[in-house]
Write a structure and sequence with these properties.
It contains two helices and eight strands; from the N terminus they run E-E-E-E-H-E-E-E-E-H. The protein is α+β, with helices and mostly antiparallel strands. This is B box-type domain-containing protein.
Length: about 90
């Protein structure tokens, strides 16, 4: 008799999938098959590149941004798009 692992998000349903970014075991409801991501990672993806997890919000436009798609200005994060617009 094998042990079944519960979804690491809802803790109610058997986990059947694994997130490609974080490795969470999740149920079908909390898995985006097209992207191979759990719901938590999908909701925190960088809104510029869509490939990496975000590390904060752009102070100018409010989008979630990863390290590669943002620059630090003083203590704030600014996305590369807003940063380029400010340079013009």
């Amino acid at each position: 008799m094998g042990l079944t692992q519960l979804c690491e998000i809802c803790l109610q349903v058997e986990a059947e999938e694994e997130c490609r970014l974080c490795g969470r075991s999740v149920c079908k409801k909390h898995f985006d098959r097209e992207q191979g991501l759990c719901a938590a990672c999908r909701e925190t993806l960088c809104e510029i590149c869509g490939r990496k997890l975000s590390m904060g919000y752009c102070v100018t436009c409010g989008r979630l941004v990863c390290e590669d798609c943002s620059v630090k200005e003083n203590l704030a994060l600014v996305c590369i798009n807003c940063s380029r617009r400010q340079e013009v």
